[in-house]
């Protein structure tokens, strides 16, 4: 979509999906943030990397809405894409109790056991002199196994869940140009969504006659769930499964990357485990997974004095907002002792992350187990990145220090 611009509107040309941007987005995000509260990207969309502006947008879906920006990926019926508060909350609240802190706490021992089981063979290989990819062999698997367990998915199907989820994530990595629907990545993602939907359909039919305590049973037998079609149940369950593992996997990889680069930080956390929750939250502020949150103008709107047409595309750059000096002192520094201030890493307002408590539990339990078991290690080769929309280090090669 083009825009009619005045001389007062900052204009930049930024390819968010270039190799340079994915590898090191911070200088560009800083330039966007410093250019102004709202910037026109000559690639065809508005954008902001300021915390204040992004929080306003999250809080005002009637101005810039998730619909239809997110419906193309998750589906129109997914609560993550629904801006109507009552409808959104009715679906989200199906699982609200399941994601409460007191409900999730018993999972801590399971997470530590999963982590330990994955680390043991990895450490043996490292002691034999191998370089291993901790992102693929540990970080990627933990949250997928946990959310699969919560959904009642059989152990033998968990590798398929990882494969489907990864294909969906790659399709959402962006940068495919105007004809993205014709790219192999998008087509593979659509096949994965269809295969996952077929699997979930079987699970849903089984749960109708054999209810349990799992998340699929909860939506099937919830009062709201009984009013949903099977397609609507599939779409919301698929969304939950994807979001419940892909972002956390990247967060864990960031943690392993940082600890491998900063042995003094690892030593400090190893000596004082009480620091873990705040330290891991700071790592996520400093290296957030979700960099991009798309929105569309609802009618003709004015934001920060800038007029936008109905349906205009807007990109919230959450990584840039998380390093906004208007909110954080010395934001470019990783400081695990800074005064706690909530970042936008888990969203904000209506569309804040349902699984935030689970993600934090997984991060703390996994890191504690890593500190207990993993000998001192170092980054042992060039790392890659999963993309810009969902950004994490992968592959992440490490070897014993």
Using brief descriptors, characterize the structure shown.
Cytochrome p450; 18 helices; 11 strands; 49% helix; 401 residues; 3-stranded antiparallel β-sheet; globular; 6-stranded mixed β-sheet; alpha+beta; single chain
Rg, Cα atoms, Å = 21 Å
Name the average pLDDT. 94
CATH topology: Cytochrome p450
Q: Looking across the biggest beta sheet, what order are the strands in?
A: 1-2-3-9-6-4
Count of helix runs: 18
* Tertiary shape: globular
Class derived from helix and strand content: alpha+beta
CATH class, please?
Mainly Alpha
- Counted up, domains total 1
> How many strands appear in the DSSP assignment?
11
- Beta content comes to 5-15%
Q: How would you name the CATH homologous superfamily? A: Cytochrome P450
Proportion of helical residues: 40-55%
- Main sheet, how many strands, which sense, barrel? 6 strands, mixed
The unreliable regions are none
In the CATH hierarchy, the architecture is Orthogonal Bundle
